[in-house]
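Predict fold of dGTP triphosphohydrolase; 450 aa.
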Amino acid sequence: MMHWEKLLASGRFDPSKKHLDVKKSLRSEFEKDYDRIIFSSPFRNLQDKTQVFPLPEHHFVHTRLTHSLEVSSVGRSLGKSAGEFLLEKYPEIKESGIQSSDIGAIVAAAALTHDIGNPPFGHAGEEAISDFFRYHEYGHVWQPHVKINEWDDLCNFEGNAQGFRMLVSQDNGLQLSYATLAAFTKYPRPAHIFERIKGRRSQKKYGFFSDQIIDYSHLAMVLGITKINSECWLRHPLAFLVEAADDICYSIIDLEDGCTLGLVSLEETIALLAEILGDTFQPGKLEKYNSNSQKLAILRALAIGKLVEECVVAFQDKEEEMLIGEFDQALTDIIPSAAALSQISNISIQKIYRSKPVLEKEAAGFQVLEGLLEVFSKALNHKFYQTELYSGKDKSILRLLPEDFPLEGWGEQVNPYPLLRALVDFISGMTDKSALSLYRRVKGISLPGT
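Predicted 3D structure, encoded as tokens:
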């Protein structure tokens, strides 16, 4: 069984040390996490990564950055409310110096980073990277040279695992707290496992690459997170709140964006949100607002507020089961509004996620990311394996890689997994625009400065 005093332990991620001295400050360690993330380059890059829709000229729709800020805001409310409950139930937490605002800060910081590992073009980008290694000639060529668990990483690119990699990387200098990293990790398992345990939400995807199992093992040991088997752990209970914040925001706000762009009618949107509000919905009050955007804004705020209340109650009901691993579902699947959210999801799939602008963006993402991976992977393979094919074109391509890219020490006798991991880091870390721009240049579609 897990214990809250240990799950909320202070200290920053550093596998080289068992304990870290924490200097006293006006800000808690978890508030510092939030500030470090806000000022980091990976977080800033989210401003040019689309959430669902391509960025139009005449309408405001959400980017990954605005979505992440909103999820973080909802997460803070969830965490603080849950924290008040936990402090009342477990006085020993309060005695250790933890306040409800600290728990709110952990969830807010983790929620702020929940999409930080997403590649350009969103989920289509994840599939494009995976498909390149599964099917493309110059992706599949690497399979004989890496281990089976490493090949699973490459063929199943996962933004959550990429996010964990970025957050613990010394290059990004974040050194977040253990608790924030654990709350971020919704899927505490690697890609390659013997058998996924059916019905456990935390095993739906994976949360770290095979070369970082040691990192997560260290984190879990420090916080006392229970191991299910040799490959998988239970979730940190606050990860359920991070997941709920994301579920709430994308359900409600993607619908709002779809209505703004005319894909879902205002009448249908109001009816869907009214299902969540139930008896508290007062249609007459909407008439006070002149514009549709004002009507959507007030309904969105009311719906999110209702969903937050319901998720906090669900967390309180299931908290003890989370500590022993008996509860492993999405909170939004067990709240009173679950059916209404499911209805919104169905409408969103039909009218938003399969709309022409979204499908065109996804098609472009496949083309761009496959193209970039092809030219760089081909050049790397020619340089280190099919050396007789290494050309001047390959040399020019490799000069476009970052200065710190590891271009030495590879060959037939050396496992190229770290090399491929660095390549995927480079491609997945791009913004939509930078990926498109580089693709055009390496394909000769445009020249620099044009």
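Residues 4-119+153-235 form a domain with the Hypothetical protein af1432 fold (CATH 1.10.3210.10).
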